Structure formats: structure tokens, C-alpha cells
Amino acid sequence: AISSPSEARGRCVRPSKTRSAWISSEIDLVDYLRRDGGLCVTRLRKDLSDSVAEGERRHDETRWRNGDQLADSNNNRRLSVFVRGWGDLVRRRGWEPAALDALRSVEALAGEVRDVLTGASRSIAGESGYCPAHDIAGAGVLRHGREMNARWRRAVMENGLRHRNLLTLSPWDVFPRDEPADFRYMNLLPIVRRAHSVSMRRDADIS
Question: Whole-angstrom Cα distance, residue 107 to residue 18?
Fold first, then answer.
């Protein structure tokens, strides 16, 4: 189930004891499957965009545990939009998980999910400014002269995102969750390269 903006406001925030500050949400692809097996892409794209907008708002509203987390929130605006259900999606659509076509299809979807998230972040950056960590990284460009600095600044202004991290995936989510793991689904593991951060949360039965 979707545990993001509208349905999980009480548990979207993840203020850990570490120095980094994350806002997390969860979206399950199975919730977007239609009865005919197709995917409700329009609703999925909207919920992905809403997750980014909600995460941005919560960064400003959260009372972080310490000054390190507050600084990390201000500088990096880290989000974890955990998109799950990849193996379940393949099984319910009747695809052969070991087939190259199945991998191509889920990779294309993972790429679209990432593009929606980065697009939403870029849109917020156009209104509120890009991720301040870009300025920290760009400090080293200054020594290369005015022209290089201008090119860096222009690239950041045109392409910079508001958030340091966005998409989270788990390698275990390539397996369907309500049956023993079928290792043909390992063929789907390359989708994890689309992630900005990786979770090792496991719901698959590997016994």
C-alpha cells in the first residue's frame, strides 16, 4: 500500500539517531495494477510527485534530534521514496521473470519512476532553489577560473535538483512477497542501479 503523503502523515518522517536527516515514504506498485493487468500510470506519477512535495514540506516542519541532522536537512534535503512490488508486478502481469523482455520492461518503468521523482524535485528547485550541497561541491570549481565557475553555475541552475536522494529500491523486492523465492526473478536485479539509495528490507521468503 502507498504509505506516503496523504495516507501516512504520521509515519512519513524518519528522524534517526544518525547525523543524516531523511524523510521517507513508500509506494507499492501492486496498488496501481488494474483488473486487466495494466498499470495506472497517471495515478502512479501523481503519487510519486506528491511524495516529493510532501517530503520537501516535512523537511521544514520536522523537529530534528540534533544540530547535525538539522544541518543535513538544510543542506541535502534527503528523501527516500521507497518503491516496492517489482516482483509482484512481473508475476501478476504474467511475464516470464527470466526473459530479457521482462527485465527491459521493469527497467523502463524504474527509469520512468526515477524521471518523475527527479522532475518533481527539479520543479521545486526552480521555485525554492537547488540543493545547497551543490554549492559546497562547487567550491572546488572556483580554482579553475571564472569561465569554468560560470559554466558550473549555469549547469546547476538549469539542472540542479532540490533533493540529494530520491528513489529507494531493495534488491529483495525483485521477488514476489507471498510465495517462496523463485530465483528466476534474480534476472530483475539490474533495476536496483536506478536507485539513489538502497534498502535491504526483505519480505521475500528465501527459506
Answer: 32
Of the candidates 77, 69, 64, the residue with the CA atom closest to the CA atom of residue 124: 77
Tell me the three-class secondary structure of the chain, residue by residue. Answer: CCECCCCCHHHCEECCCCCCCEEEEEEEHHHHECCCCCECHHHHHHHHHHHHHHHHHHHHHCCCCCHHHHHHHHHHCEEEEEEECHHHHHHHCCCCCCCHHHHHHHHHHHHHHHHHHHHHHHHHHHHHCCCCHHHHHHHHHHHHCHHHHHHHHHHHHHHCCCCCCCEEECHHHHCCCCCECCHHHHHHHHHHHHCCEECCCCCCECC
- Judging by DSSP bridges, how do beta strands 22-28 and 13-14 pair with one another? antiparallel
Rounded CA-CA distance 30/188 in Å is: 16
CA distance 159 to 130: 9
- Residue 107: the pLDDT is 97
For the entire predicted model, the pTM comes to 0.81
Enter the C-alpha cell of residue 38.
Answer: 495494466
Of 202, 186, 207, the C-alpha closest to 97 is 186
User: Model confidence over 156-200: pLDDT tens digits?
Assistant: 555 578 898 999 999 999 999 988 889 999 999 999 999 999 999
d(CA 144, CA 25): 40
Q: Torsions phi, psi of 131, nearest 5?
A: -55, 120
